Amino acid sequence: MIWGHEDPGLHATVVWTERVAGRGEDAEPFAAHHFATAQGLLAVFDGSGGSGSSLVWQAPDGQMRTGAWVGSRVARLATDCWFHEVVVDGEPDDPEQLREVLRYFLSSAPQRRSKLVGKMRRQLPTTLAAVRYQVRGDSAECQVLWAGDSRAYTLRPDRGLCVLTRDHTEEQDALELLRSDPPMTNSVCADREFDIESQRMAFPLPCVLLAATDGFFGYVHTPADFEWLLLHTLMRARTPVEWADLLRREVQGYTADDASLAVVALGYPDFSQIRTAFADRHDTMTKHYTRTRPPAAAPAAEQRDWQDATWRAYRTDYETYLPPPPEERI
Q1: CATH of the domain at 100
Q2: Torsion of CA 319, 288, 255, 239, to 10 degrees
Q3: Average confidence (pLDDT) over 151-174
Q4: 329 occurs within a structural domain
């Protein structure tokens, strides 16, 4: 599925792909904008197939669905309802309120209880990464919310791609996370306590915000490659829909997972000005990262040295807004 929208000051692009047709455990990305209040929400949900692989529900067409498939979609519905309550009904927008809505929906979802038990098993497990924003004057006030290892970002012409979330895993180095697959220490689920982490910030307009599951960023060579993918496809697109289609084609060529992405560009009068704003950054990324990549046949040690050097050069800007570890928060 691809989708795009364009209005002066508001351009949105959404991509959703399944590795196996009809079996994708990512829910469709959520992207909504309430014009009356200039508020919006981007969110992605990645059902955790490892801990939620048991079949728990039979669809009306007879297809059996896993706990991960059900969990991501129930979490999407709950988040949609929470956003409606915040925008239309004036309910609190704090993370605890979202957590309670998620817990209610997940506890109410019909499912078969698995006979399999274990420390890593979960009922209806899923990640969540979301950015709720409101345009006020010349800035976008943002509330970032997450659980698990899906991520939210901002994309800037001066710094490039900047992560806004910290993965709920023991390993915290983004490059090492590409080289390993550590278990999550926190995720949305029906049978155990979980946390929705958050941070608030504001970005001057124009700005670009996005949320993605690890199908997009977890199968590249370095964290910089994900930014280059975004910019390389952007430079070739003329509309948000074309950008979505190019992203879909690229991600399906390298990922080994379902992949979901939601992007909104705020404050740009038209789509061509987004391309213009990021043209220099694209050229910089191409020069310093993609053109320095060793050939595919290069020895593994040479490939690893290139990854390490690329990450050292890229890391400072990428982690500009990285939330501090829990033990360092006040």
Answers
A1: 3.60.40.10
A2: 90
A3: 96
A4: no
